[in-house]
Design goal:
Number of helices: 13
Strand order of the largest sheet: 2-1-11-10-12-13
Number of strands: 13
Low-confidence stretches: none
Order of helices and strands: HEEHEHEHEHEEHHEEHEHEHEHHHE
Shape: elongated
Mean pLDDT: 94
Strand content: 15-25%
Helix content: 40-55%
């Protein structure tokens, strides 16, 4: 039974190992990370953290956009008892300094040169920081692979196993900071069970399997996308990270996912864009478009639509809705959304 977050990738490796567990685009090409490489990389990070002197209960911060390295380091932290504190990349230097001081972060992982410079500029204000690692090659910064290499050479495998075996579901896994709009940011303390219980509860709600792909573009430092990412891992769904918010439409057509998660406002923008296109049509094409739209709005879950409705829907799917689906890659079965009515 899965009870701790770091059990999830190992569960995937045992049940349905994948060649494309985590995928991002590098130099114009989709670059996969297998489940085996994911698990191995996380273990090397965990041992490297121990070799750096960190102990269970210490904190490390992660300031990066979505990418496989985020997940590998996250699982590495969690299995050696280090508390992951993800931070929004868009925060100001002073806001980041406050959070790093508040949680006493000992190590900070950043994505690239801009974030490295932002952290370096406030490093003297955060005495707890021992080292800053970057995922991309940055002049003057320690590359995160150095931490993995330190783990390989340390000989601390047995120490890691002892720590890992002693971690309980009720232990602190992560601290998520609020936006601070009503005052200073506050750290929300979440245990392994707080998150894993959500994954287990949602298992039967999502019609996805290890044969499917999901596109991810919402920030992993938010609890919403992060929990869904663990759920995808648990179900064996391959996770593809969008290049950027501007490239979502292109990436949907490229990878043809079965699922993605979003927020209502983005769906509203997509819907508005589609209906604006419909208004530009003329004659019978325009009439068919809005007939299909009205028909779709009458759809009822649970097979209560009737024979006549289903015949009309088949026609609407062929003439109109197939084009909508093609814009989303053609395979989408699930769009996960929340946060508004």
């Amino acid at each position: 039974m899965i009870s701790r977050i770091f059990d999830i990738p190992e569960y995937q490796l045992e049940r349905f190992p994948k060649t494309d567990a985590l995928v991002s685009k590098t130099n114009g090409n989709w670059t996969p990370c297998s489940t085996g490489d994911f698990v191995t990389g996380a273990r090397e990070v965990a041992i490297g953290l121990l070799a750096s002197g960190l102990q269970p209960g210490d904190t490390a911060a992660m300031i990066s956009s979505n990418r496989p390295e985020w997940n590998i380091v996250d699982i590495g932290m969690l299995q050696c008892g280090v508390v992951n504190v993800p931070v929004y990349t868009t925060l100001s230097s002073s806001e980041i300094a406050f959070i790093l001081n508040d949680c006493s972060a000992k190590i900070v992982f950043v994505e690239g040169v801009d974030l490295y410079r932002k952290i370096a500029s406030v490093r003297n204000q955060v005495p707890s920081i021992m080292e800053i690692y970057s995922f991309e090659t940055v002049s003057g910064a320690s590359h995160w692979t150095k931490l993995r290499e330190a783990g390989i050479q340390s000989g601390l495998e047995e120490k890691l196993d002892n720590i890992k075996n002693g971690i309980r579901a009720s232990d602190l896994a992560t601290i998520l900071y609020t936006s601070g709009t009503t005052g200073l940011p506050k750290g929300v303390m979440l245990s392994h069970n707080n998150i894993v219980s959500n994954c287990i509860a949602c298992e039967g709600l999502v019609p996805l399997s290890h044969k499917d792909r999901a596109l991810s573009f919402l920030p992993l430092c938010h609890s919403y996308e992060r929990m869904l990412t663990y759920l995808y891992m648990y179900l064996g769904v391959s996770i593809y990270y969008a290049e950027s918010m501007d490239k979502i439409a292109d990436n949907l057509r490229e990878i043809q996912p079965q699922a993605f998660s979003t927020v209502p406002r983005l769906l509203e923008k997509v819907y508005d864009r589609i209906t604006e296109k419909g208004k530009e049509l003329k004659g019978i094409k325009k009439n068919l478009f809005f007939w299909a739209l009205k028909l779709g709005l009458k759809f009822e879950l649970g097979g209560k639509n009737g024979i006549l409705y289903n015949l009309q829907l088949t026609l609407a799917n062929k003439l109109v809705f197939s084009k909508w689906r093609a814009a989303l890659g053609g395979n989408v079965r699930v769009i996960v959304s929340g946060g508004a009515a």
